[in-house]
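Dear V.,

Thank you for sending over the compound details. I've combined the ligand you provided, flavin-adenine dinucleotide, with the protein sequence from our construct and run the structure prediction for the complex. I'm sharing the raw inputs here so there's no ambiguity about protonation or stereochemistry in the SMILES, which I know was a concern on your side last time.
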Amino acid sequence: MPTYKAPLRDMRFLINEVLDYPAHYARLSSGGEATPDMVEAILAGAATLCEEVLAPLNLSGDREGCHFKDGEVTTPAGFRDAYQKFVEGGWQGLSFPTKYGGHGLPTSMSVFKTEMMGAANWSFNMYPGLSLGCINTLLKYGTEAQKSLYLPALVSGEWTGTMCLTEAQCGTDLGQVTTRAEPRPDGSYAITGTKMFISAGEHDLAANIVHIVLARLSGAPAGTRGLSLFVVPKFFANEEGSLGRRNSVSCGAIEHKMGIRASPTAVLNFDTAVGQLIFEPNKGLEAMFTFMNTARLGIALQGIAHAEASFQGALAYARERRSMRALSGKKEPDSVADALIWHADVRRMLLTQKAIAEGGRAMIYAAAQTADIMFNAVLDEDRATQVEYDNLLGFYTPILKGFLTELGLEAANLGMQVFGGHGYIHEHGMEQMVRDARIATLYEGTTGIQALDLLGRKVLIGTRGKCVRDFTRLMLRFARPHLLAGGCLGAMARSTVKRAIEWNLLTLRIMSRAGRDRDLVGSASVDYLMYSGYVMMGYFWALQADKAYKYLSSGQGAESAAFYCAKIQTAEFYFDRLLPRADGHRRGALAPARSLMQMDNASFAFP
Ligand SMILES: Cc1cc2nc3c(=O)[nH]c(=O)nc-3n(C[C@H](O)[C@H](O)[C@H](O)COP(=O)(O)OP(=O)(O)OC[C@H]3O[C@@H](n4cnc5c(N)ncnc54)[C@H](O)[C@@H]3O)c2cc1C
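Below is the predicted structure of the protein with flavin-adenine dinucleotide bound, written out as structure tokens.
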């Protein structure tokens, strides 16, 4: 079984040297507590929790899974104790307001912590992960009474939260939701319906579960315009926080599924369960989007988490396992054969994993700064900044969620491949990562849906390409001073300029054709998303290489010369071998929709 070591050196390189988090925190009115010492303490504390408590439960949790009996769910051995340690450490409240018992640190701190937790044990991470979105929704849209009733226990981790959107007939198309909400004389609502696939919908880790439920008020319009959002607790809480009687929401079953088996995926029956309206009637989806954006960034982290964990396992194996001799001659003459890591094709797999994990980490940590500024603006009641950074985050989110989860799955698969046949065997833990990573491209909006959101809503309709122009301006600004430089940094800069121009042209060409061909956006969208992801990751690799050069030549960085050299070499690998994939996606995005759409539905198969 692979042992997980938190990649603290890479995290510190990004935090301190590439993205200059100390200066970023200093600019936030809420960043005062986020001193370098505090960041260091958080990184070290989270690493210990993840390496010593969560990672050792990953394989056993998968093997045992969750148990369902008489409506109750029991988590695998060790999960309750681990969750208790998580709560005692105050980890849930890291980035939530002190008013509700949190530590009031910027959101990005929670991102650093979540990445480590996810890599150590994604199933475990699901329980507090779902709570994050629940808390954010209540913080933004809850009434003062709802906030004071639910937030302290959610923020401490004593209670957990869920998001209840999906029903049997709909996951993507939430306009089909049929769960009903009837007003009650006391101002509350009776919720009736069945939700399915609800992560952490029922379990034994916390005393109470707070469900955020999408339902339809009687007489509401059909479709998404008639959806409202409700908060429905498993147990009613009294004002002083103690638990009262049970609400009529029950768990009917949990799914038997491919991966994340230590996380229960529940069928929840709401049988006139009592809940309260959040936000305004029929504006549930609008409020739910806070939940979805936070959750989607969390799922983007899943791609990185699995890429990192699988890379660590594969690297250790490739250094130990011996097979044949390197093509360029014996490398380890005293051994019976050379280690796998000497073989070019194994190096291709390892470097792909490394480039995905570290490139994706840079993308997410940069997006986390945007989230910090956005949440800070909410606290400062600075509406203009909030909207500006929310829009920016809205552009990042589908790219990060769609692209990084697809690549995370590829990286997990490669890790299994490095193990050869042993990768297919459960006890090594590599096949579990593939199974666990698989869900990330499905839930919180499939890759196809992220792609439609990116190209349709964010790029074409929302901004008519402005979001791409804004981002590529950053790329050009970075690349310009290096254009005449020799060596690989100059080459990366020239490639960055070419891609910046190309991304805008691609967007313009799709925009000009989309008016004439209504199927074009749907047919181009996934290729467009993947293209955008590769180009964006290229920029973040160039940025990392640039910083590594600077610190290497000045000798003033916190890291060793070998670390900086490896950064530059990984960037070169990315530009040589992964970025060219963007060309295929660009061509795919520009291909006419006709070859996709022309076949008659009946002609797909001739049984
Ligand atoms: C383990 C697990 C945990 C989950 N956790 C939660 C949870 O906590 N809460 C919750 O509410 N839900 C949860 N879900 C549900 C999950 O979010 C949905 O399954 C997902 O959004 C996809 O919806 P669906 O299954 O209905 O697929 P469908 O919507 O039926 O989609 C099927 C396929 O068609 C494609 N498709 C659908 N519509 C379009 C379109 N208009 N254009 C192009 N392509 C389209 C999709 O991309 C997909 O490939 C979970 C699911 C699983 C398996």
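A first observation: The chain has a mean pLDDT of 96.

Warm regards,
I. M.
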